[in-house]
Amino acid sequence: MAKKDEGSRVRDTLRVGGELPDPGSAPVGPGKKAKALERLGSAGERLSALQEALYAEGVGGGNRSVLLVLQGMDTSGKGGTVSHVLGLVNPMGVRYAAFKKPTAVERRHHYLWRIRKQLPAPGRIGVFDRSHYEDILVPQVSGLLTAAERRRRYAELNAFEAELAEAGTTVLKVFLHISPEEQLKRLKARLVTPEKRWKYNPGDLEARSHWPAYAKAYAGIFEKTSTAQAPWYAVPADHKWYRNWAVAELLIETLADLKPRFPEPDYDVEAELAKLKGVGVSA
């Protein structure tokens, strides 16, 4: 994908609409690590200010929230993105949820049951580390979904996200696009670095062996569930510094479009200031 002007909106560039960008590319924004880290710092200030306004709006009775959905192959950096991007804002305004293999209790319910329990309250930024899309991906790759069942789930997820939008939640769906070559490097790093071994899961190799099947499943998801109100964005993820900057900018653009507002006080500001005059501290 050719690189666009620096002034291009990140969402316009990274929105999925055909061929995915090269995992090692920088299709918009900074092309070098030093510049990306510099810009991430300033992005943090903007992101924090927007999040504070959204949180205050929710406290004041507003109903709006944002849900950041992070999907990607193992080692694509879902956890790292949460740490480096959401770590820039006040944790009071963030709700994080990671979805792994369903438990026995969760399997007794509809697959969206556990998802609904983790949705962000008004004023919050919700973050899903994996999401409701795992309930298409894994069963499809495992051969547990028929074509008809898969179509039904596409329709269910589109209806679910339309319901969220109607209720005031803006859904931001991000695919962290990593190459198999970079994944291999990161898996090896987890084994040879003692402090990273806790991240390694032997099952990751099993998923890696099905890479083409996962790529096909994701292609179907992008085609069938990238809607006007909840589109998919593909972020090149071979370079962690670019991944973090791009996701931060996607969040900033999303929040900026919402224009969150600090609520008006339900008291007389001037009267309260007058009360403060001459107010002392009791002994």
Layout of secondary structure:
Layout: H1 10-14, H2 33-59, E1 65-72, H3 78-85, E2 94-98, H4 104-107, H5 113-116, E3 125-129, H6 134-141, H7 147-167, E4 169-177, H8 180-192, H9 203-208, H10 211-225, E5 232-236, H11 240-258, H12 269-276
Parallel strand pairs: 1-3, 1-4, 2-3, 4-5
Task: Give a concise summary.
With about 280 residues, the protein is an alpha/beta fold. It is about 50% helix and about 10% strand.
Structure characterization notes:
49% of the residues lie in helices and 11% in strands. The chain is an alpha/beta fold and 283 residues long. The longest helix is centred in the first third of the chain and has 27 residues, at 33-59. The mean pLDDT is 94.
Keywords, please?
alpha/beta; about 280 residues; 12 helices
What general form does the structure show?
Answer: globular
The separation of the N and C termini measures 70 Å
Q: What share of residues is helical?
A: 40-55%
What do the pLDDT scores average to?
A: 94
- The fraction of residues in strands falls at 5-15%
> Segments where pLDDT lies below 50 for 5+ residues?
none
Order of strands, main sheet, comes to 2-3-1-4-5
The number of strands is: 5
